[in-house]
Amino acid sequence: MVSSFDNLAQAAFASSEAIFSINSPSSHPSRAIDRLSDKYTISNTSPAVTTLQANADPFQKIQESAATKKELTSVLATSDSLLAAIPHLFKTASQRSAVVVHVETKERDSDSSTTQHINGTAAPTKSTGGHNGVPSYADLMAVRQTGFAVLTSDNAQAAFDLALVAQAAAVQTSTPFLNAVNSAAAGASDKKIVLDHQRVAPALISEQDLIAHRERQSAVSEISLSSLYLKPQEGQPAADSAAPAAASAEEVYNKVEELLDVLQKQTGRSYRPIEYQGPANAKTVFVSLAIGSSSLDHALKAHHAKDVGLVKIHLYRPWSERHFLQALPTSVERVIVFEQSPAAHTAWTPLFLDVSASFHASADDKAAWAGKVPKILSARFRGSGAEVTDADVKAALTSEHAKPTFVINPHFVAQSVSSASSLQESDVDTPYIQMLNQVFQDRLNIENGLKTDSVWGSAQQSPEFGYGSLVTKVSARARFAELVSKTVQDSNLKIAEPLRKALTQWHLNRSDSKLAKRHGDEVIALLQEAKDSLVGSLAEISAQSSQFAKPSHWLIGADAWAFDIANSGVHHVISSNADINLLILDTEPYTARTQNPENRKKDIGLYAMNYGSVFVASVAVYSSYSQVLHALIEADQYQGPSVVLAYLPRPDEENVSPITVLKETKLAVDTGYWPLYRWNPALEEKGEEAFRLDSERIKLDLQQFLERENHLSLIIQQNPDVARTLTHSIESEAKARDVALKKKAKDDFAKLMGGLGGPPLLILFGSDGSNAEGLAKRLVKGAKLRNLSARYSAMDDVSIEDLTLEKHVIFVVSTAGQGEFPVNAREFWKALSAATELGVSETKFSVFGLGDSHYWPREEDAIFYNRPSKELNAKLIELGAQPLTDLGLGNDQDADAFETAWAVWEPLLWTSLGCKPLEGVVEEPKKSADDAMKIDSNYLRGTIAEGLLDDTTGQLRAEADTKLTKFHGIYQQDDRDLREERKKQGLEKAFSFMVRVRVPGGVATPAQWLAMDSISDVTANGTLKLTTRQAFQFHGILKRNLKKNIQLINKSLLDTIAACGDVNRNIMCNPNPHQSDLHKQVNDFATDLSAHLLPKTSAYREIWLDQKLVKGEAVVDHEPLYGPTYLPRKFKIVVAVPPSNDVDVYAHDLGYIAITNKDGSLAGFNVTVGGGMGMTHGNKKTYPRVADLIGFVTTEQAIETGEKVMLVQRDFGDRMNRKHARMKYTIDDRGIEWFKTELQSRLPFQIQEARPFKFLDNADRYGWTQGQDKMWHYCCYIENGRVKDTPAEPHKTGLREIAKIHNGEFRLTPNQHLIIANVKASEKAHIQSLLEQYKLDKLNYTGAMLNSMACVAFPTCSLAMAESERYLPSLVQLLESTIEEVGLRDDAITIRMTGCPNGCARPYVAEIAFVGKAFGAYNVYLGGGHHGQRLNKLYKESLTEPEIVAELKPMIRRYAAERLDGEHFGDFVIRVGIIKATLSGKTFHDLS
Ligand SMILES: Cc1cc2nc3c(=O)[nH]c(=O)nc-3n(C[C@H](O)[C@H](O)[C@H](O)COP(=O)(O)O)c2cc1C
Ligand code: SF4
Q: Which atom from ligand 2 is nearest to the alpha carbon of 1352?
C-alpha cells in the first residue's frame, strides 16, 4: 500500500543527512521510508533514519540531535504532533538548525475532543481541531511564531517540489522549515507526479551550502529572544542584538524565491512564494494559504467570476507584507481572507490579521493604497467534509453589506474588519484595565489596546503586534542599560563622582521599579545640572532619560487567547523569558461553559507553570479584588514573564446586570472551575511555597490533595493528567464523603427499623423556608409516639423509583416562586411528572400542601395557589397510587395560617394508617421549644465548641447551635447563589458565617477600623458591611476561620457578644457631629447602657477566646438580668438627638430622645416604647408598629428605666409564638396604659411628662460639617453600607489609607454611611485629598439615592425572597431620570428596600418601600413619615421592575407639580388620596 508520505519521504531521503519519522497509532511515516525503492541521496552516505513515537516528546530529541550534530535534518510527522512540539521548535529555531519538518495536516473530529500533552501537560486540541473530518490548519497556525519558515502547497506535485526547496532553503539560510501538505495533496497514488529529485536536489543544494551552514550554526549561542518573524519589517531588531544575526525575513523570502527560480529552470514547474492568479483588474481577491486553496480555486473557476482573483500563499512564514501587497492588483476593492477554520470563537484568525496589517504597516507600499484600502472580510469555511461550492463563492461575493459576523451559508462565517471596534464594545477589559492604571499609573504600558476605533484595531489587538513592539522596547532599555554600564566603566570619561555613583546605583537596581525611579531621578537631576557640558555617551544617556523608569509592560489578550493555548501569544511571552506581563481575559460564563471543557482555561496556567520560570496567577475581580491587586503587583515585580488569567464572565444577554456577573463568577470560583491562585517562582527561590491557592472554599480540599500528592509542579511533571484531575479529585472527594454520610444514614435507619414495629412511613418534604420541613419533622415525632417507624427527607434526595418500594409515603410540600415546587423538590417533580408508568399500585400516599391563597392576589393568578401539592396529588392518583386521605391544603391566609388545615388533616392521616387516638400522651408539648433549648444550652454553650472542631462539614453540629451562636453575634448561612449548583454536584451547601460586631453608638477608633479592614481580608470575604444598626458585619467566614475572626475582633477591643440573639442588641446613637459635647454625653450613655444590659455568661470567652475557667473551679454561670431563658425575642434600643431622627427612634423596642437644658447640656430623655418592623407576608397578626412616647426621665434615671422596660418584656412577652414575641405585641395585647403602670411599679422614681422636641428627618448629612469645638467631620456616602474596593471606586483601600493617618474617630451612621469624625483643621486638607484620590468625595447623587437604604438579603440571608442590597441602586437609578427631569434632584425622598418582610432596613417607616415577595417581585408601600414617625401602607403587591417604574414615575411627576410648600412625598401621597394613612400598627393591613 502506498501512503501519503511516500513523496515526502522520497524528497527527504534525497536531500538530508538525518531523517526522523514520528509514528502515532494512526500514522506511520516510517513505513514510507521503508518502502522507498529509490535510495538516491545528494551526499555520499544514506541518511540515518530514526523512528520516534508521537507520545514520547519526539521533538526534544530532534532538537538536541540537530543542535549537536548540525546535520541537515528531515522530519516526517502529522500536524497533530506540532502543538506539543512548540517549546522545542522555538529552541530549534534559535539554534539555527537546518531542520525541515514535513507535516501532513491531520483531520480532526471535533466531537472526540482528544487531548494531547504539551511537555507533560494536558493541552486541549478541540479548539484547534478540525470539524468533523475537515482538515484544519490551526495546528499550523499555532506554530507560526516559532521561528520556523512555513511553506504550504496545494497538490502532490507542489508538495514534492516544495519539500526539496525547503531542504535547500533551510540549509542555505540556517533556518528551520515546515513544509505543510494536506493528506490528499501528499498522496502518492497520483501517477502523474514527476519525481525528479535526482536532477533537482543537487541543483538546489551543494556541498558548500552544507559546510557554510555548519559554520553558521556553530557560531550560534542560544538566541534569547527567539521569535524571528514577529515583526518582520526591515529595521526592526528581531532578537537580542548580542546574538549572531539570524537570517532576516527578507533574506529567507529572497532565498525561497531564488530556489523556486532554480526549480523552474530545472523542471519547468513554476511557483511564486506568494502567487496571484486572476485578471489584472480584479475588484475582489480571495487570499488563501496554498494548502487550503484547491477547492476554492475550482469553485472560483466554476463561478466564472470576471473580476475575481486569488492569492495563493506558498510561503506563509516569514510573512512579507511588501510582497503580499505587490502580488495584489491595485484595482482590488475587496479582499476576502479565506480560511478553513471551524472554531468561530477566534475573532480574527492569524492570516486575517497578517493581511489586515499589511495594508498599513509597510510605509513604502502604503502609498499605492493610500485612501483606498480595500475592505477586508474574513470568510471561514467550516463545512463538514464538503468542498467549497460555487454557491459558497457566490454567497461570499455578495456579502458586502452583511453584518459584522454572519453566516453566509452553512459553510461560511464572514466577518468584516470594520467590525473590530463594535466587537470590542463589550468593555470586558474595563475593570482590569482600571486596576492596572491605578496600580502602575505612569509606569503602565499596555502594548496592544483592546479598545480602538480604528479599523486597524484588529491588528493592534493581536499578540504579534504587541509582542513585537514590546520586545523592541525591552531590548532598547537593555541597550540603554548597556550604555550606562559602559559609561560608568569608561575611565577615559570624566564623570563627576556623584553622577557616576547615581548611574551605578541605577544600573544595579534598574529592575526594581521603585529604586529605578529613585536613582533615575537622581541621575536626571545631576544630568540637568551639567546639561551644558554633557558630551559623548553622557549626552546620549541624557537624551534617552525616559529609559530610567522601569515600565510595567502588559499585553492584554481577550477570549481567543484564553481558549486557545496554541493560537495565543502565550508561548512567545513565556519562551522569551522577557520581563513582560500578559493579562488574558476569559469571558465565558460558568453557566454557558462548554459541555466538555477539559479544564482548558486552567491548562494555560498549568502549561505556563510547567516552564518553572513564569509567574502565573488566576484571578477574578468579582470574587476577590485584593487577590487581583496582589497578583498584578507580583506579576509586575516578577523579573520574567508573567501570565495573569483574569475571569470576567459576560453572559450572553442584552443588558447584563452586575448581579449576574457576580453570580457567574461565584459559581466558577466556588466549583473550582476557575480557581484563584498565584504561582510565584521567585518565592521558591527564597525557600517559600511558590503556589498559593486563594480560593477560600476549595482551599482545604485542595490543600489536602496537594499534601498527599506532594508538590504541584512535581505532579504536573510526573502526572500529565493532573490538569484534568485537579477539580475532579476535589469533587470526587466531596462526593465520596457524601456517599459515606449517606451510607451511615442508611445504616442508622436500618437500626431504627429494627427497633420499631408498625408500617414504616416515608415522609418527604419540599420546602424553601422551614414550614413544610418543620411539619415533616412533626410527623416523624407523631409516628414515633404511635410506634410507627418513620424517616424523612427532602423529595429530591430520593428517586421516584423509590416510591415503588414504599408502602406509605406522606408528602408535605410548600409552594415557591409562582406556583412552583420548592428548590429541593424540583428534580423529583421533573421525573415524576414525566413518568407515564411507575409501579406504585401498592403504594399508599397522602399529600399536605402549604401555600398562600393571596400570595399572587390577582384573580387570574388563583391557579398558583398551592399548585405543587395539587399537581403532585393528581399525578400520584394518575399513576395508580392509593390516596390515604384527601389532599390537605394549608393556607397562610387562614386564622392560624397552615396550622388551621393541618389540625384537620393530621388526625385523618393517623386514622387512615390505622392508629387509634393517643391516650395520655401530650403530642406537642406546650412548652416553648426555644426556651427549652436555651435552658439546655448551659448559658449559651450548647455543642458549639465541639461543632467547630468537626472539619468534615462546613456547618455547625446541631440546629440548636445555630440558634445559640446568634447570642454570640454569629449567624450560620449558606450562599444561596450557589445552592442549586452545589446540590447538582452532590456537595453540601456553601456554608459560611456572618459575624456582627457590637459597636455601641457606632463609634470606632482608626486602629479599630484598620483591624476590621484587615480581619475582613484575612478571615472573611474581603468586604465590610456597615449595618443599619451601626454595627460592622463580616460575611462569608468559613467555619475554620470563625474562631480566628472572633479572636481578632476581641483583640481590637470590640466584641460580638449579644450582637444578635434574644437579648438587647447593639445600642444605636445619633452620630451627631454638630454638638460635640452633647455627642460625648449621649454616646457615653449608650455605651454604659449597652454594658449594663450585656449577658454575663462566660460561655463567649470560653468558646471563642479559650478563656477556660481554672480546673476545679466550678463556677456556675448566672444571668442576673436575663435568667436562663433570656428574652422571648430580640430587643433593640436607640438614642436620638433631635432634630435628627436618623436612628429611627419609633422603629425600636425602646427609644431615648435626648432633651437638652437651655445651655445645650444633656437634661435627660423622652422615652418611647413598642416600635418594631418585622412582619410576615399575608399574616395579618403580624405587623410593624411605631413606638409610643411614654414620658421623660433624667440622665441619671435613664439606665434603670431601660433595664426595667426590658424586664417587663422579659416577664410578659409571648414565649410560645416567636412571630408574636416582640414587645410591640406585648404592649398592643395589654394596652399602653397597662405597660406604663407595670413599668412605673418597678421604678423608684416617677416618670415625668414628655418634653417638647422636634424631628426634621431621618437621613444622614453628607460632606463636611464643623462642630462647636471647631473640629471637622466628613460624612461619606457608602452605597448600602458595603465597604469594598471596585476598580472604579477603591473605597476600602481609601478608608484604610485615611485610617492610617487619622487621629479622630470613625462613626457609623444609622443609615449605613460613615463619618470621619474629629478632624483637626490642620489635617482636613490631607483627608480631603485622600477622599478625592479614592473617590470617597462623590456626593453628587440625587436626594433619592442619598436617602435610600437596603438590607443585605441575597446571597447570604436565608430569609431573603428577593434581592435587596445588590439591586436597590439600579432601581433607584431607573427612577432618577424622572426625579431629575421634574426638578426634584435635591429633594429627599426616603426609599428603602428589604428582601423579605422582616424589615431589617426599616422599610415600613419609609416614604417609598419595596419589600421582597419573590424573586424579582416586590410589594410597594407608600406614605411613611419623612422623619420616620408614621408607618406606610401597602400600595400594590408583587410588582416587577417595569411595573414599579410605570407606577412610580407618574406619581413623582405629580408630586413635583402639585406638592404644597415644604410638603414631603409621604404626606403628599396621603393628601391627594393615593394611599390611606396608617395610624397604628394594628391597622397597617387595612387597605381601605
Ligand atoms: C417567595 C415565595 C413565593 C410563594 N409563592 C406562592 C405561590 O405561588 N402560591 C402559593 O400558594 N403560595 C406561595 N407562597 C407561600 C408559601 O408556599 C407558604 O408561605 C409556605 O408556608 C412556605 O413554606 P416553606 O417555608 O416550607 O417553604 C410563596 C411564598 C414565598 C416566600
Ligand atoms: S429584611 Fe429579610 S432579607 Fe433583608 S436582611 Fe433582614 S431578614 Fe434578610
A: 5
DSSP characters over 955-1014? S-S-HHHHHHHHHTTEEEEE-TTSHHHHHHTTPPP-EEEEEEEB-GGGEE-HHHHHHHHH
Residue with cell 477539559: 598
Distance 1396 CA to ligand 2 centre (A): 5
Burial 628-649 (b: 16+ CB within 10 A, else e): bbbbbebbbbbebbbbbbbbbb
* Alpha helices (H) along 767-914: 771-785, 802-805, 826-834, 867-878, 898-912
1414 Cβ below 6 A of ligand 1: yes
Distance 660 CA to ligand 1 centre (A): 25
Position of cell 449594663? 1092
The C-alpha atoms of residue 779 and residue 783 are separated, in whole angstroms, by: 6
Among all bound ligands, the one having the nearest atom to the CA of 1364 is 2
Alpha carbon distances (Å) from 609 to 128, 227, 624, 672, 1241? 22, 21, 22, 18, 76
Find, among 448, 478, 68, the residue nearest to 239 by Cα.
478
> Within 10 Å of residue 509's Cβ, how many Cβ atoms?
17
Q: Is 767 in the pocket of ligand 1 (CB under 6 A)?
A: yes
Backbone CA torsion sign across 213, 216, 217, 223: negative
Residues 954, 940 contacting (CB under 8 angstroms)? no
Of 835, 855, 952, 959, the closest CA to residue 897 belongs to 855
Q: Cell match 437644658: residue? A: 1157
- Per-residue pLDDT reduced to its tens digit, 684-713: 788 888 878 787 666 555 554 444 433 344
Q: What is the pTM of this model?
A: 0.66
Helix (H, G, I), strand (E, B) or coil at 1257: strand
**Does residue 821 have its Cβ closer than 6 Å to ligand 1?**
no
Return the number of other C-beta atoms located less than 10 Å from residue 160's C-beta: 27
Report the chain's terminal Cα–Cα distance, integer Å.
94
Q: For residue 851, how far is its CA from the centre of ligand 1 (angstroms)?
A: 5
How many whole angstroms from its chain centre is CA 523? 44
Q: Which protein residues are within 6 Å of ligand 2, measured from CB?
A: 1351-1353, 1357, 1359-1360, 1364, 1394-1396, 1398-1400
Q: Which residues are catalytic?
A: 996, 1065, 1130, 1132, 1351, 1357, 1396, 1400
DSSP-assigned letter for residue 1116: P
Alpha helices in 268-347 (DSSP H): 294-303, 321-327
Ligand 1 proximity of 1023 Cβ (cutoff 6 Å): no
Residues 1000-1041 have pLDDT tens digits of 999 999 999 999 999 999 999 999 999 999 999 999 999 999
Q: Is 1418 in the pocket of ligand 1 (CB under 6 A)?
A: no
State the closest ligand 2 atom to the C-alpha of 1361, by its place in the atom list counted from 1.
Answer: 3
What kind and span of H or E run contains 337? strand 334-340
Q: Give the H or E element holding residue 1462.
A: none
Separation of CA 1028 and ligand 2 centre (Å): 11
The SS3 assignment for 1447 reads helix
Give 437-458 pLDDT, tens digit per residue. Answer: 888 888 888 877 544 332 223 4
Contacts of 1176 (CB under 8 A, 6+ apart): 892, 1182, 1219, 1397
The dihedral over CA atoms of 1194, 1200, 1201, 1206, expressed in degrees to the nearest 10, equals: 160
Q: Is 362 a residue whose pLDDT tops 50?
A: no
The count of other CB atoms within 10 Å of the CB of residue 74 is 33
SS3 category, 921: coil
Distance CA 74, CA 99 (A): 6
In degrees, rounded to 5, the angle at the alpha carbon of residue 129 between the alpha carbons of residues 128 and 135 is 125
CA distance 999 to 1019: 19
Q: Is the CB of 378 under 6 A from ligand 1?
A: no
**CB of 765 closer than 6 A to ligand 1?**
no
Which contiguous run of DSSP H or E holds residue 284?
strand 284-289
Nearest CA to ligand 2 atom 2: 1396
